[in-house]
Amino acid sequence: MPPKVNVVSLVSVGRHPQSGRSRRAEQDGRAVELGLKLSKKSLTVVHAGDSQEPVLRQYAGMGLDSLTVLPQAADGDALPVLVEFLKNSKAQVVLTGVRAESGESSGMLPYLLAEQLGWPLVPRVAEILTIKEGAAEVLLALPRGQRRSVIVSLPFIATVDNAAAEARQTAFGPGLRADLKVLNVESVTDDAMATWQISAAKPRPKRLKVVKAKTAADRMKAATAKPVGGGGKVMKNETAAEKAQAIFDLLLEEKVVR
Amino acid sequence: MSEFTPTESTLSDLLRRDPRAEWIARNRLHPLHSSVVSAGQGEVRGPSGLLRKNPHVIGFIGPNGIKRIDRANLSAAGLNGKKRAGEAKETQLPLHIVDNPDGYIMVVADMIGGRLTGHDKDILGLAHQLVGENKAAGKGSIAVVLVCFGESKETQFDLAGVDRLLHITGQEFEGFAPEARLSALMQVEAQYKPVNWLFPDSIHGGTDLACRLASRLGERPATQAWQVTASNTVSRGASGSRDISRETPRILMLMEECANAIEDTRHQVLDLAFDADAVETGDDYRLIDQGQIEVDSNAVPLAEAEFILSAGNGIHNWDQFHAVAAALRATEGASRVAVDDGFMPRSRQVGASGTWVTARVYLAVGISGAIQHMQGIGQCDKVVAINTDAGCDMVKRADLAVIEDSEAILDALLKLAQEHYLSKEQEKSDAA
């Protein structure tokens, strides 16, 4: 791994799913972890928001010397200040979580950054394997535990999936001692958000099982019938090789054997 | 311009009851009783002019094969009425027709494995809700368009609510190709100017594509939307702890079960004109797909494994079974018997008191299919059974069942898998 890769990890304030207290965000912590793994010296961790937030010390406690804060009001829009910051920095790799745990948590920020900076975006990264000659080989986390290898040119933005390496433990004392660089930037208000009505989440209604049978006999049949696939092909008299070939063809057709 | 044609039914097919005749048939003291009951049969006189009754035609064979005599003559009334004809005839659902639509709602489906997912179908249902609301508001008729990429194995687009189909095929859209797909969607946008773009908010690529489109168009989408009308959208925010209510944006990413899927109409599934070759497939794509890489299939949690090779009581050669699983790159599963006998660890058990699996392909070797096991594989798409008993429940459930001893089939499968991967490697080394 060449040491001269400038990595920027963007962090936000997380929310504990049970207690609702603010915490180090799960995926953002992983983004910092990945950044530390890539290059500990040239990693910049950036937060756009409240500079007094105690959660930032939890990120700093992962072994960071300093942390950059772009101060924003609570109803501020993080996008313009981050675009400005990244344009002026020499960042080659920008790591974020997939979705924030507070605010709108739309997951749009990395996409908007990529669009405005004109950089490529790699979604749901599990690992960055190599960075050399202006290109990086990254592993994407696919559903069902699968991985895909993608080559992307530098500079790029990557969102870090939950499949990436877990964030290391945070140390309290070093976190407090870390340097908080608060930059002097304008706070931009998010106007569209002001028109929204935000309330505590209502539990979603459970989908009811609707009985569509019109007669009692149909209902009886639906209630007592065994689950039968129906229309399945049964092979009895062929040779073992033919039968195995039929199974293998199905596996190939379903693309589980590649 | 939608129009529902009712199912065709002629009057002669209807069951017409005669309540008075039924009442007389029930009442054996009625003066007309004998004539009503014997109306359909006619009396038989012997050679001497005596009225003869054939004891063999009295009664009928009941559902358990036992002869029943209907002394109350309840069923005789049915003889008077006409039999219900064509009861088993498959009902033809009414066809929803959209001619010359004034606008389009684009639904970009995930199509995992080339088929519509339940999530996709829910979104199509929601699209039709929006169409209905727009129509009620006098905004003209809107067609629901399904946009899908790559190979499609779906045969029931018409029942899922697809008015128009935009199937974009081509080598450049296969696999992981968000940039090519985005430029195709941009062309769709330019050509059709859809009223709404609906995406599944899923990890199968729906969210990714939607975010790319929204940021390219510079529009603010609603993500994790779960309650959508034409005017208002409620979506989850702050990791699911807040509800955000706002005006419905043009681009929506929808959660699962956001609406009910279409059930009682058929749809046209007309191909929408689209020139896939005209998509500006820039050579400057900066994401180069290297393909999926192999992962340790047994490290994948059983509950989310894509392909499971499951063993039951019919396995005798366990070394061979493990070899086949490794050769096919399948995750290993087991039935309760195999686990109880100590051949497989408890963590591999499928079904009740084990894991409920969601595999796309489930290959059951020597498993007859106890109901506890069948519950566990309820969500599997394709089930393949290898069993010696043709009458077992697993064979009934299976899409492909093979009646043979497991050892012979596994042996042949092992050879096929090894040959397949060998030739794959050969190709790779030739290309390199």
TrEMBL record, chain A:
| UniProt KW Transport keyword | yes
Keyword ATP-binding recorded: no
User: In its UniProt entry, what is this protein called?
Assistant: Electron transfer flavoprotein beta subunit
Into which family does the record put it? Belongs to the ETF beta-subunit/FixA family.
- One GO MF term attached to the UniProt entry: electron transfer activity
Q: Which Pfam families does this chain map to?
A: ETF
Give start and end of each Electron transfer flavoprotein alpha/beta-subunit N-terminal domain.
13-191
> Which keywords, in A-to-Z order, does the entry hold?
Electron transport, Transport
From TrEMBL, chain B:
Which Gene Ontology BP terms does the record give? Answer: fatty acid beta-oxidation using acyl-CoA dehydrogenase
Q: Name one GO molecular function term.
A: electron transfer activity
| Alphabetical keyword list | Electron transport, Transport
Q: Does the keyword Transport apply?
A: yes
- Which Gene3D superfamilies would you find in this protein's record? HUPs, TPP-binding domain
Alphabetical list of SMART domains matching this protein: ETF
Task: Provide the coiled-coil residue spans.
Answer: none
Domain (Electron transfer flavoprotein alpha/beta-subunit N-terminal): give its ranges: 105-289
Q: Which Pfam families match?
A: ETF, ETF_alpha
The similarity comment for this entry is: Belongs to the ETF alpha-subunit/FixB family.
What is the name of the protein in this document?
A: Electron transfer flavoprotein alpha subunit apoprotein
